[in-house]
Amino acid sequence: MFTGLIQSRGTIAQRVARATGARLTVEAPGLAADGWTLGESIAVNGVCLTLVEGSASGFSADLSAETLARTALSSLQPGHAVNLERALKVGEPLGGHLVSGHVDGVATVLRLERDGEGRRLVLEIPQALTRYVARKGSLCVDGVSLTVNAIEGAIVFFAIVPHTLSATTLGELVPDAQVNIEVDLIARYLERLMPDFMGRP
Fold it and tell me: pLDDT digits over 170-181, tens only?
């Protein structure tokens, strides 16, 4: 489980193709100081990955064919910056919102516009996910917990504050870039538990 509050930016150091996916090596010296635990979960651009190797400079994780097919990690190449968050520990404050690291879909960046010292981010999300998004609700974008300012059809608007711009990769987004989206867990479970309420048979 994660919070959507990015702890560090990392850099893709290597990507090696494998028969059933790929192995990703990430430079993350800012997170490596406390050491690594083999098998621990770490969110890379919002995707929960399992650490298979750790060092003083970073870590490696395997990407399955399913992960490559359903997330924007498939486009990552050496040199790309990524958002990183280690799994939430019991007793730590929950400053963002509950994030599982299980990506629901990929959205497309339409615009990133200057808004004073911040930015206004506009995304087009998959139509099937719009039912889970509400104004002033939470949405995880490339691992970052964001508040939805408005939603018009499949177009979602966010305000990005200066701290988020400096601490994450969101300030580097360009039109047509692909980002990972995870909807709020509460909306997902409501649909499962209350199908009539959600308008499903």
Answer: 999 999 999 999
